Every structure is written in structure tokens, then in C-alpha cells.
């Protein structure tokens, strides 16, 4: 059993790896066609202010409906797009589409767009952002770019140059998935973030007595407030987590408790239903993701 047949074991691993590689190659080929074939769309998830209990913005999330496989998760295809050099074109499409759709929403409502570290390393990014907001007619202050700590892996002077260029345009910057990556506090000192998004792994279980996550969230909030940054708790799923997150001092909540991501037209219809005002709390935006 345990000793098994060495060759058998390695043959098994080779077959598995080959199947994985072939599968990946096929996905990669299909991904190259996806933009031209119009297979992408964006869904939007509400971001709620804990103090006003109103929806103050939405995060755009990319969806790919593959012609035969159906929905493929961005967690699966974004890394492939990053490795094959497709993320630039896809990311630009996301920016332009999100800005154009968000320009239809009531004025103060913000739109958050995820930006890959590879896009962030491209000196053309500020020009692409400027062009996207100008063509959409969207005020720069309504656009928030979400980046992860991985942007700090690239050379220091070019990333600080990029931060300055983006802030110069007037867009907001959010540090996404905080706590899951390298989480050097030096990053917070250097980069002009407007917001820290606390990863959902800290929200998970925070409500349970004796759980350390609540203490971690409180510490992150204290740090963020000291630096003049807002905080969004990600992945809030349960009603009783709302009060806890508010009591821990987070300024914003995003999660299934307030709504799953939905299409832009549905968001617009909801605004219209409510006199063009931002959504009231408790109005569930239940849409298939
Ligand atoms: P993210 O930017 O951290 O986005 C939040 C993810 O958490 C989304 O997953 C969202 O659907 C999910 N989520 C929100 N509320 C809850 C909740 O209450 N419970 C749970 N379990 N999950 C919740 P999604 O849409 O599958 O996206 C996964 C990741 O893919 C994103 O994480 C982001 O890193 C990446 N991604 C998505 N769209 C884009 C894009 O346009 N560009 C880039 N570069 N990355 C993207
Ligand atoms: Mg994000
Ligand atoms: Mg996140
Ligand atoms: Mg994430």
C-alpha cells in the first residue's frame, strides 16, 4: 500500500498534471476569444455605510459565461489572464464598462473597480483611467480603484509614481483583501489609500465569543482611522454580524447580507423605484451572482 509502486504513483501524477495542463491550455485559448465574442459582463455588489445605513456605492465584479462550461469564476480565470498577458485588455474593458454603467446612477454613488497588479505596473494606466472616466462623463471622485498588496512587489519608485499619478486624476484608492497578503504596515505609511477593505476571512467567525478576529478588525480600524482611511468589512453574510461590524468601527459593509452582485440594469431599476435615492437598508438586492 504505502510503498506502492513508485512508477504507478508517478504515472498517476503525470496524467493528472497533463489533464490539468490541457484543461488550462483550453481555458487560455477560450479566454483569448472571450472579449471578441462578448462573453464578459459585470455584476455590481452594494457597499453600505454603517452610519447612514444607505448604499453609497457598488463594486464591479467580472463574470465570464463560457459557451460550453457556463460560468467560470474570476478566481480561476483572472490568474490565467494575468499570466497570458490578457489582463490589460480585459481590465481596460472592465474599467470602461463599469464607468459607463455607473455614470447612469445617481450622482454621489460610487463605483469600485478591481485593478490587477499587472495593470498597476503599466505606465499607461493613468491615461486609460482618464479616458474611461472622460468618455463615460463620470466624476473622478466617484471612481475607486481596488488594488491588493501584491502591487508592492514591483519596484518601489514606480509604484509610488503610479500612486501619485492616480491620486492626481482624483480617483479614490482602496487596499483590497487586507490581511491576507504581505500586510507590511510600511505599505500603509507610503501609499495614499482612501480605504482599507478588511478581508472576509477576518469577518468569518468574528461574532463568536472569544474569537480573535473581532480584536484584529478593531485594531485594523484603529490604524485606518489614525491614517484617515475608511474601512469596509468584506463578506458580511449574517444579520447579527452587522451590529458587531458597526460596533467595531468599520465605516462600510459589503456582503451577501445586503445583497449579492446584480446587473447594472437591476441596480438602476432599484434606484428608480426608490425615487432616485440610494437604497435603504434592509432592501435586499437578491440576484444570482
Ligand atoms: P474581491 O475583489 O475581494 O471581491 C469580493 C468577492 O467576494 C467577490 O467574489 C464577491 O462575490 C464575494 N463576496 C461578496 N460578499 C460575500 C459574502 O457575503 N460571502 C462570500 N462568501 N463571498 C462574498 P467574486 O466575484 O467571485 O470575485 C473573486 C475575486 O476575483 C475578486 O475578489 C477579485 O480579486 C477578482 N476579480 C473579480 N472581478 C475582477 C476584475 O474585474 N478585475 C480583476 N483584476 N479582478 C477581479
Ligand atoms: Mg475587490
Ligand atoms: Mg476583497
Ligand atoms: Mg478577493
From TrEMBL:
Organism: Sphingomonas olei
Record domain EAL: where: 24-275
Protein name from the UniProt record: EAL domain-containing protein
Amino acid at each position: 500500500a504505502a510503498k506502492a509502486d513508485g512508477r504507478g504513483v508517478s504515472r498517476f501524477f503525470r496524467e493528472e498534471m497533463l489533464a490539468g495542463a490541457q484543461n488550462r491550455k483550453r481555458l487560455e485559448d477560450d479566454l483569448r476569444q472571450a472579449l471578441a465574442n462578448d462573453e464578459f459582463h459585470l455584476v455590481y455588489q452594494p457597499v453600505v455605510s454603517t452610519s447612514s445605513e444607505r448604499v453609497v456605492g457598488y463594486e464591479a465584479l467580472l463574470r465570464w459565461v463560457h459557451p460550453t462550461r457556463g460560468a467560470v469564476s474570476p478566481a480561476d480565470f483572472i490568474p490565467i489572464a494575468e499570466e497570458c498577458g490578457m489582463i490589460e485588455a480585459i481590465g481596460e474593458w472592465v474599467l470602461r464598462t463599469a464607468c459607463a454603467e455607473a455614470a447612469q446612477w445617481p450622482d454621489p454613488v460610487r463605483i469600485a473597480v478591481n485593478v490587477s497588479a499587472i495593470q498597476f505596473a503599466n505606465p499607461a494606466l493613468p491615461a486609460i483611467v482618464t479616458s474611461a472616466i472622460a468618455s463615460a462623463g463620470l466624476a473622478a471622485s466617484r471612481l475607486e480603484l481596488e488594488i491588493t498588496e501584491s502591487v508592492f512587489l514591483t519596484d518601489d519608485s514606480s509604484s509610488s509614481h503610479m500612486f501619485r499619478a492616480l491620486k492626481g486624476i482624483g480617483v479614490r484608492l482602496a487596499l483590497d483583501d487586507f490581511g491576507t497578503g504581505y500586510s507590511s504596515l510600511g505599505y500603509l505609511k507610503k501609499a495614499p489609500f482612501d480605504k482599507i477593505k478588511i478581508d472576509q476571512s477576518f469577518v468569518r467567525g468574528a461574532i463568536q465569543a472569544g474569537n480573535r478576529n473581532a480584536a484584529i478588525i478593531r485594531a485594523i480600524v484603529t490604524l485606518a482611522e489614525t491614517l484617515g482611511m475608511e474601512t469596509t468589512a468584506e463578506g458580511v453574510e449574517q444579520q447579527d454580524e452587522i451590529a458587531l461590524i458597526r460596533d467595531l468601527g468599520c465605516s462600510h459593509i459589503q456582503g451577501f447580507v445586503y445583497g449579492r452582485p446584480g446587473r447594472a440594469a437591476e441596480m438602476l431599476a432599484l434606484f428608480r423605484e426608490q425615487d432616485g435615492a440610494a437604497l435603504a437598508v434592509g432592501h435586499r438586492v437578491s440576484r444570482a451572482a
